[in-house]
Structures are given as structure tokens and as C-alpha cells.
Design goal:
This protein is mostly beta strands. It has helices at 6-12, 155-161, 201-205, 402-405, and strands at residues 26-28, 35-37, 52-58, 71-77, 83-90, 102-103, 110-117, 120-127, 133-136, 142-143, 149-152, 184-189, 195-200, 218-226, 232-240, 248-256, 263-266, 271-278, 281-288, 292-299, 304-307, 320-322, 327-331, 339-346, 351-359, 375-376, 382-387, 395-400.
């Protein structure tokens, strides 16, 4: 880990002023019957026109999905009374990441999502205007910015180790192995479907770690994300059982798009949410051994860090940059009153702007908790969250932030 910067320590002593402006307008864009949500914060929910937003509709709450549960995939027309139009059904999904439904980067018509077909995991690319669909031989986790490549982790393994992010219905063929050579990260050509294993769990576990692992530590991958230029990607190596044989830990690494030149970015095992600010810089929530748990700005090439807005962003959440990196949107987990707080942070004025506090009933916890995970429209004027605060189960809500960011 790089040296802690003195200027970050000085800035941490300065509290960021809170905006006194009224909260921006919030409206539900889905409603019952059924429950609607999108999932994770680093996928493209909005199309390039800012008009259409993707979502999923389910009919269960407060339990893990079974192989027989499915979700309906649809589009909300934000300029036509939030009209919902269904276009497909997905047979594999998780509470936190759904079926990886997202717009293909740059496309006004094509979306991609994961599915189960003939007892195997696949992904579909569909033109939502024509209904034309083609099927790829593997599921995807994330898509490169040029929409040429998808990278994939083993959803069968993560399903058995972290059910809120993996898929049920297919057994992990390597469940008896702690770090198998045939399970890991694949890269798939989204045109031809050709794919190859570019990093195995065995490869990454072989990279030395200061405290080592317990004898029974079992590993899997999660949270893959391409850099904005598509040249590298981040991934989490996660395992059950730390050096003392207990707990759950994470090591953050990066690699070239073909899996080469792997770098260890956080060797300490306590990294959480992150996002790319640009192709060299990350915003990462981590528990630094010298400076504590906080958001840090990290230089990816050498893993040096400095504190990022510690007074304005003191709690872990799901961050995203927009408007060329000037603005950050983030949220929090439920506080003592079960309120989840969403807010903006302006990196230019060093000010925080509250977007709302949303009540999460106590039954939304554990595997089926409902994180708000804010997602931003391409023009930076709209934010959509998932929330059960409207007493209608989990639904999607749009926050109009145009009056703040203008």
C-alpha cells in the first residue's frame, strides 16, 4: 500500500458544509402488484437518451429464490407516465445483482442479461424494439465500455458461498476444492461467443498474501468491473476463513483485460464497495490498517491512497461518479432508525447535498435486504434507487437532481 498523503490528513480536519436546500423531488416509477428493482449500482440502467430505465419484476420477498422462481424484465418509459413494458423473463437472478440486466454501452436498443437454458448458464443480447435475441454460451458479470467483451465469474460457486450475489439451480462442480484450477474469471467475445478462462482461483491464491490463509479457507470471485478505457478490470478475491480460520475476507486486485499483469491493490482483506473515477483512479471503501475505515481515493497503478471526503462521506455505501468526476452519488446502510440516506457530494465545492432518507422495514435484512444502490442517468439529472419505504414492497424511485447539479 502506498504512503498516506499529508494533504489528505489536513483535509480530513475540515468538515464539508451541508446544503441547506430543500430535498429534491422523489417519485415512484413502479408500483404493485409485484415488486420492482434493478440491483447493483455499476450497471447501465438508463439508455443513452435518459428516457428509458430497465428493471426487474418479481413476486416474492423475504426469502432466497429457488430454481423455479423467475423475474420479468421490463422498461420504464420515464416520459410516458412511467409506463412499464415487459420484454423477457429471466430464470436466474440474485437479490443484489439481479440477472445482470443492463444496456449494452452506447446502444439505444440492445440489452444483455443472464439466464438459465437447458441446465446451463447463458446470456442473451436482445433488441428491445424488435424482440430479436441471440444467445451467448456463458453468462456475463460486466461488459467492456466498447461492448466487445464480457467478463464472467463462476455464478455457481458464488451461489453456494454468497447466495445474495450468486445463482441457484446449478451445483458448483468444484465445491470440494478450496481454490480450483478450473473455476475463476472468463473473458467472452460478445460477438462470437468465444471464451477462455483468463484467471483461475488457483492462480490468484498462489499470489502471496502477508497473513496467508487458514487451512480451510475457501475462495471465490466477485465484483468485477472494467476501467473506463477497458484496458484493465478490478475484481475481488473472497474467502470464508481468515488466517485464524474464521470470518469472511476480501482481497482487491486488478488485471489487464486478458487477465495478465495482476496487481494486488488491497492485501489487508477488508475492502468493500468501489468505483472507477477515471482509468487510473478509484474510490474505494477500505479499512486501512493505519488510518481506519473510510473512503479512499486510490491510484490504481501503484495502489497509493489518500482519504476522500471523510467528513462528507463517513459511512460505507455504493458510490458513483458523474458529470466528468465532479459529482459523487452515494448511500448508506440503514441507521438505528432503519433509515437509508442518499446524497450527492460536490468535489468542487466540497459540499454534501441530501437527497432523502428512506425507511427500510426490519424484514429487509440479510440476504434479501434492499440496498438503495443509486444509479445515475447519462445526463446526470436523474437518479434511481431501489427502496421499500413506500409500503409497497421494494420498488424503484426516481430522484430529480437537476436543480442541484445545474
Amino acid at each position: 500500500m502506498g504512503m498516506f498523503h499529508r494533504r489528505a490528513f489536513i483535509s480530513s480536519l475540515l468538515a464539508a458544509p451541508l446544503s441547506s436546500a430543500a430535498l429534491p423531488p422523489v417519485r415512484p416509477i413502479t408500483k404493485g402488484p409485484g415488486f420492482h428493482w434493478f440491483g447493483y449500482y455499476d450497471k447501465l440502467q438508463f439508455d443513452p437518451s435518459n428516457r428509458y430505465a430497465l428493471g426487474m419484476k418479481g413476486n416474492i420477498e423475504h426469502r432466497l429464490p429457488t430454481p423455479d422462481d423467475y423475474v420479468r424484465l421490463g422498461i420504464v418509459d420515464l416520459d410516458d407516465g412511467d409506463r412499464w413494458t415487459e420484454f423477457a423473463i429471466g430464470h436466474v437472478w440474485s437479490w443484489h445483482q439481479g440477472c445482470m440486466l443492463q444496456w449494452l454501452p452506447g446502444s439505444k436498443t440492445d440489452v444483455i442479461y443472464n439466464d438459465r437454458l437447458d441446465n446451463r448458464l447463458v446470456s442473451h443480447i436482445m433488441n428491445v424494439r424488435t424482440g430479436k435475441k441471440r444467445t451467448l454460451p456463458m453468462p456475463i458479470y460486466c461488459v467492456s465500455p466498447d461492448a466487445r467483451w464480457g467478463i464472467v465469474n463462476d455464478f455457481r460457486r458464488s451461489g453456494s458461498m454468497r447466495p445474495e450475489t450468486g445463482y441457484v439451480g446449478l451445483d458448483d462442480p468444484y465445491s470440494g476444492e478450496l481454490a480450483p484450477e478450473k473455476s475463476g474469471i472468463w473473458r467472452m467475445d460478445l460477438q462470437s461467443g468465444k471464451h477462455e478462462l483468463i484467471l483461475s482461483l488457483a492462480d490468484v491464491v498462489a499470489i502471496p498474501r502477508p497473513n496467508g490463509y487458514s487451512k480451510n479457507a475457501k475462495h471465490y470471485f466477485d465484483h468485477l468491473l472494467f476501467a473506463p478505457d477497458g484496458k484493465r478490470f478490478i475484481f475481488f478475491q473472497r474467502w470464508r476463513g481468515d488466517a485464524e480460520g474464521k470470518g469472511f475476507a476480501t482481497r482487491m486486485l486488478s488485471a489487464d483485460a486478458d487477465g495478465k499483469n495482476v496487481r494486488v491493490l488491497d492485501p489487508y482483506g477488508k475492502t468493500s464497495h468501489y468505483v472507477w473515477r477515471d482509468s487510473k483512479t478509484l474510490l474505494v471503501w477500505m479499512d486501512h490498517p493505519s488510518h481506519g475505515a473510510a473512503f479512499y481515493q486510490m491510484n490504481e497503478p501503484d495502489a497509493s491512497v489518500e482519504l476522500f471526503a471523510p467528513q462528507a462521506m463517513p459511512k460505507n455505501g455504493h458510490p458513483s461518479f458523474f458529470r466528468k468526476g465532479r459529482w459523487v452519488v452515494c448511500d448508506t446502510s440503514p441507521d438505528e432508525q432503519r433509515l437509508q440516506h442518499s446524497y450527492l457530494y460536490d468535489t468542487t465545492t466540497k459540499s454534501r447535498h441530501a437527497l432523502g432518507s428512506f425507511y427500510s422495514p426490519p424484514e429487509y435484512t440479510g440476504f434479501w435486504r434492499c440496498d438503495t444502490t443509486p444509479r445515475v442517468s447519462p445526463d446526470g439529472k436523474k437518479i434511481i434507487i431501489d427502496s421499500p419505504h413506500g409500503k409497497n414492497g421494494r420498488q424503484m424511485y426516481l430522484i430529480d437532481v437537476s436543480g442541484i447539479v445545474r
